[in-house]
Amino acid sequence: MTDTPKVLFVASESMPFAKTGGLADVAHTLPKTLVASGLDVRVMMPRHARIKDAWAAQLKPLVQAEIAVGWRRKYLGVETLEHSGVTYYFIDNEDYFGDAIYRGGDAENEQYLFFCKAVCEATRLIDGSGIFKPDLLHLNDWHTGMIPFLMKTRYNAILGREIPTLFTIHNIEFQGKMGFEQMQDLLDVPELYNTPEYLELAGSANMMKAALVFADRISTVSPSYAHEIMGHWAGFGLEGILSARRGEVSGILNGIDTEDFDPQTDPGIAAPFSVADLRGKRSNKKALRDEFALTTALTTPIIAMVSRLTDQKGISLVRHVLEELLCEDVAFILLGSGDPSYENFFNYIAAKYPDTTGVYIGYNEALAHRIYAGADFLLMPSEFEPCGLSQMIAQRYGTLPIVRETGGLIDTVEPYNEFTGQGTGFSFATYNAHDMLEAIRRALGVYQNKAVMRRLRKNALALDHSFQRSARQYEALYETMIKG
Ligand code: ADP
Ligand code: GLC
After folding, report:
1. pTM for the full model?
2. Which ligand is in closest contact with the Cα of 15?
């Protein structure tokens, strides 16, 4: 090992190349922050079709090979480019990586079983040719789950050294479950591992479980979630293995990209503002209201959501009481996509209440910035939330989050305390629609008090959500692991 830790950071998506959720933000900002403080961190991810389309001019071929994937021979290409000081390695195979980042079902299992094998082979090839010799692999979510197994049972021997693996859980709900035959067929996994001691959980082979068994260390994206997933209510069946390895599990809170999300310099918002000068916030609110053709007064509070529309995000609570909420003097804006039944519901609401609601079904980065900048409140009533970035981005724009007390939302939102007059948002504890409505009403009450509202906005704007603190924690963890 040299003095500068060399880390290969592996994920299925990363900004600005491909994103479906917060994982992509973290897989961009964390490596960038670590590189800026002197570590040699490089990112490896699939070359999805959209990357080839948008970045063709910069991509440089690095490796072209044929690898064994079970009985098959498959093409493995590695292409590279540098972005924000970070070297990216893209795993290319058009059979597996095309338009859909996640194909769903067995096809998706196959995509990422291939990916795990391809990452190990690509590491072997770039290591062997001296291009990059990692001291540690930092793996993220189930898509990378078989890598610790493959390293421990095969590749460390081939490479002639033990490369420690850190596995970060971004969401334990998604585990990569399949019949053992599929795993065996693609990765030649010996039958002896098909037991609850190793890869099996409730009758399925499970890629996330494989990672939790074989990785040297485990981390997750907030301290509260680290604690919660050791219990059966949040562990989705993996609480046993996590509790057993409790001493090797760390909860490290995510940060956000404070350069990309900066109300003082954001080129996409109507007017800049800051903790020292809040005036621009009003212009952003006006612009947002006009963009959605709302007829509400500028004094009417705007509650927004920017979210994947899935059960995790507590959308069923919103569906339950939104019409009741709309009886108040309030405007509601939603940007999101996901479950068609939720999409239909919000389209219905937009059609029924055109003057007070605005709905954009789809994914739109630029609009997200304008919503964070222009809204008064961001609603995030998640059933569970490993960390959550939206609430931190909202605070960065002086927009107060209204959240359920779960996972990272507990660690990032200080609920308004009426006795001290302090806080950085609002919260409720029980997963119940009327408890949520109650919290929203508390927020609307505070909104009427200009002085308190201003103080809370300033508190939120003053928070440091940069990745610096987490980066120091990851760095310390890497160092302990590399020293062994
Ligand atoms: P998750 O990763 O579970 O979806 P996070 O809060 O960690 O939740 O991250 C969500 C990220 O995706 C944030 O950066 C948020 O702004 C962004 N986002 C979510 N939905 C949309 C959308 N429809 N359009 C644009 N950005 C979105
Ligand atoms: C997952 C989680 C989210 C977290 C993100 C980044 O998508 O659902 O809570 O913020 O990963 O770690």
Report:
1. 0.97
2. 1
